[in-house]
Amino acid sequence: MSRRRAAIFISGRGSNMRSLVEAARAPDYPAEIALVLSNRPEAEGLAYARALGVQTAAVDHKIYAGRMEFEKSVQILLDLHRIELICLAGFMRLLTPGFVRAWDGRLLNIHPALLPAYRGLHTHERALADGVKIHGCTVHFVVPEMDEGPIIAQAAVAVLNDDTPDTLAARVLAQEHVIYPAALAAVATGRVHVAGNRTRLDDSHQDFAPLQVPKIG
User: Fold this and answer.
1) May I ask the CATH class of domain 1-103?
2) 2 is in an annotated binding site
3) Full-model pTM
4) Of 38, 53, 68, 116, which residue has the fewest beta carbons closer than 10 angstroms?
């Protein structure tokens, strides 16, 4: 099986990066994590990736005059490592429309809410303030508009009566660790087809398990 070469972009400890790296260690996983890249040289996740033998790179955004200059250096590294897919995992930098369009259909992100609800930051606090009964997370293709783009996978959790932002975030994060590796696998095997702002999942491929969406609970 030919494995697609993927890069993960992080800015901190890289919790979702760790779940992707662990999933990709399985010999039948259809993507290889070929690079972990951070805009912060001190990011904790870089040390974790290096300890597992994953190639890492730090491109400090603060030394560049602007986003385009920063992204030129990033693209050089992506070319050097022959990257085919990118996963954003807690990457706290907005990418330019030009970069996003260049990676159209190959750039994934995970967001801690059930998009299109609660775009942006502080999703768990806002969900609790609104009194919603169901919350969750979303893996989607990245488009120039923030927290938009075709949805690949979602997982939902019930909001409990005694939830705090931290307890709700922890349960959502556990589901993020499930659906992000599954979504990357589906994209890497060519099972995700985009039509407008919607995706269709082709389950006819037998080279990797079907994408599983956890039940509410």
Assistant:
1) alpha beta
2) no
3) 0.94
4) 53
